[in-house]
Sequence to fold (158 residues):
Amino acid sequence: MSGGQPLIEVSVCRAPLRLWDRSREHIDGLLREFTLIVIGLEQDREHVHHVPYRLIQVADELRDRYAGLSTAQTAELDDALDRGEVARDFTYLVPAEIADVCKELQDLLDEADVYCAEGELMTLVSPPEQRSFRHWYLQEFVRQIAGEPPLPWPGSLK
Fold:
């Protein structure tokens, strides 16, 4: 239970580990650059409407509210990568409310890609395979919380 709410099991099946690792490195770089942008925008009253600010807010919410929910899986991912594995199944226990955060995060990351394409940033638009992985991964939480069965990663394991 999380705050009195029952937890729902979400299975992420046949996750492509190297693609997942590249995706999280890309998002980490994006968040670092967006943090610097937000610091520079703090004088602008409209900064709360900018994509960098909104993405940082959602990332902070995920970290603050749900930090412990993926600790074991992150360690498992890193260990599997160190062993040279290419795919693995993961199981999460999450509150139903995380589905809304996953939807919002997916939308904001898509907006961030548009922002990166339009701006003069060091971080580039997510490569198509990373965007596909991100959509699949986040949608697995949304779908399974809604009662649908898990769907394994349909793409390449490279």
